[in-house]
Amino acid sequence: MSVSGFDTISVQRGADLVTVSLERLTMPPQMFRELGSLFRSFSADRALRGVVLRSAVQHFTYGLDPTAVFSQDGAELADAISAVAACPAPVLAAVHGRCMGSGVDLIRACDIRLASVDAKFSGALPALQGRDSEISAARAQLLGLVNDVYADRSALDAAAEAVAREISEKPPRAAASRQIMQCLRHLTPMRSGPPV
Q: What sign does the dihedral 50-18-149-136 (CA atoms) show?
């Protein structure tokens, strides 16, 4: 079921899973406001077992919209990331194409991060100091930024759905626990993992 009321993201709701898709190549303040509002609403959603965060456009995101006006303290971005990180249900990011700047900050707030082999990451990553500003999906996996890499976008989407479905089939408390999530194949929840 499609959930209306959003302009920069789209939301598909199932019985116990939600798929959130970014609908812009760049991230304007409105996107962060919509993400923050949506993820805060999940705190009272007792039926929710998992969330997939993906992009519906050519790349996951190019990062902040350079033409938009943000508040000086970056409150929109911080609020959205905090809301994702605080989500009571596990959040799985599925990344294809480029994931740049604030997009990296956003996916680091997620519990599990999957990527297609064409994914490339750039942003404020300590591991990039003294290196190229962009890293491949394979390198991101070695650095712990992503949990697993898939052959293409179709395989990525299928894997994200399968992992989210596996999470949703666990009892509610178990689905939200890191111990159960560590049992999902060889994936490791990364929300509390080491910095990359």
A: negative
Residue 191, domain member (yes or no):
no
33 belongs to a structural domain: yes
What CATH code is carried by the domain that includes residue 15?
A: 3.90.226.10
User: DSSP string of 113-171?
Assistant: EEEETT-EEESS-GGGTTS-S-EEHHHHHHHTS-SEEESSHHHHHHHHHHHHHHHHTS-
Q: State the pTM of this model.
A: 0.86
Question: Does residue 179 sit in helix, strand or coil?
Answer: helix
Rounded to 5°, the CA angle 67-2-40 comes to 65
Residue 83: pLDDT band (50, 70, 90) is very high
What range defines the domain where residue 30 resides?
2-181
Among the listed residues 127, 133, 66, 129, the one whose alpha carbon sits nearest the alpha carbon of residue 99? 133
Residue from 32, 90, 93, 99 nearest 59 by CA: 99
